[in-house]
User: What shape does this take?
Amino acid sequence: MNIEEVRMSLVNDLEKVNDLKELNDLKVEYLGKKGKITELNQMIKDVPNEEKKEFGQKVNEIRTMFNDIYEEKRQAFEAAILNEKLAKEAIDISLPSKKVKRGSKHPMTRITEEFEDLFVSMGYTVYEGPEIESDENCFQKLNLPKGHPARDAQDTFYLKDEYENFLLRSQTSTAQVRVMEENTEKGPIRVVCPGKVYRRDEDATHSHQFMQIEGLVIDENVSMADLKGTLELFCKKILGEKTKVRFRPSFFPFTEPSVEVDVTCFKCGGKGCPLCKQTGWIEVLGAGMVHPNVLEMSGYDSTKYQGFAFGTGMDRFAMFKYGIPDIRTIYGNDIRFIEQFDKKDGE
Assistant: This one.
């Protein structure tokens, strides 16, 4: 078969192709190892030298013509296949979609962000410590040595095979120890430490897991007056400007002196109701001046530096703010509970 016969055969065969399979079969027939164009290419060695150039050019022209027509038809066939597939798989977007239930930001997330924003605006930094802590950080370095009776209310979930060494922290005060020890320069500190804590509690107002936020300020010439001013501002910003704050003497091993902080009942405004047990007051947090022993155990000079610390359960503030009667509801993952808080914040 000569060059012209191959050209005519190629044009004729390409016109008859109906689908992508036939087109690929034709490519094998012409460009395969035993293809017609391949055979023409192999014939060059038998052509006289003076005719080799012209013969080779004609073979290349046929090869180029075939490739051009092949590529054009291949794209046309593939486009047709795609269009047919899209037509079969078309989705009627006019059909009504299923209504997707959506919640809103969790009340504990809202409270945490509100607390953090307030304290950051007051010059505090936010520090989050680990939830698994050593007995030393959770108790001993907070002035609660082994055998101290104040441990009874907090001895909690110890890790298996690590009894008396590691446990789930029972208070965010453990973060204070870490902050003081990480401050290698032993200079001023002003931090808040939010996070989960764990205790052996389970009723309408207590949970084995809940959220606390701890505050710590260490500097020279820090006094109880600084603590009082900080907590009055905090309570008024969170619970309302009309909120009154009361300080009562108390005891915490890691602070001296120590105080319990009460606020006027958010429901009755201090007049007395079942929520506040007719007293007009609700206890919200504990606080005090950092005990010298705590400062010394973390490397601070208690004759130069003083500090104050405070801690509160954020769940309790969420219950106050949103009128949640049972703390267990907060952790129930019921979307009917979660979806209402956008509206409540807008009220």
Q: What stands out?
A: Strands lie at 125-126, 132-134, 166-168, 189-198, 209-219, 245-252, 255-264, 281-290, 306-313. The chain has a mean pLDDT of 85. The chain has 13 helices and nine strands.
